[in-house]
Write a structure and sequence with these properties.
This protein is α+β, with helices and mostly antiparallel strands. The protein has one domain: Helix Hairpins. Helix content is 55%, strand content 11%. It is built from 4 helices and 4 strands. Strands 2-1-4-3 form a 4-stranded mixed beta sheet. Helix 1 packs antiparallel against helix 2. The chain is elongated and about 50 Å long. The model has no long low-confidence stretch (mean pLDDT 93).
């Protein structure tokens, strides 16, 4: 998997953990683990291109998953059947590929 794409997937995993912790403990002070996770998130965001982070943020602000897997040639975000060439690009994990229907980042 492309290093930048791996960072984007990791960013999403960390964001989901932070969201879950905030739901489970809405009024409590952030724990040391949560603070460390937020630091890792900022580090990953700094390593990604700004246009990618901007697109990612638009999905996250809408409480949507930004990075989804391609399974059997389908985007798992909107279940759109991808064109063969685009599915092959996503399968190669050689960079940022977006679903032409929903715009999510794709990986295999």
């Amino acid at each position: 998997m492309d290093e930048s794409l791996a960072r984007l997937v990791q960013l999403q995993e960390y964001d989901l953990i932070v969201r879950e912790q905030r739901i489970l403990n809405p009024r409590g002070a952030p724990s040391k683990d949560l603070t460390a996770m937020l630091g890792r998130i900022e580090g990953l965001r700094g390593q990604l291109p700004t246009d990618v982070v901007g697109r990612y943020d638009r999905f996250v602000q809408g409480d949507k998953i930004a990075v989804v897997k391609v399974v059997a040639g389908q985007c798992q975000g909107c279940f759109f059947r991808l064109p063969t060439g685009l599915a092959a690009q996503a399968k190669a994990n050689a960079g940022f590929v977006n679903c032409p229907n929903c715009g999510r980042f794709l990986y295999c």
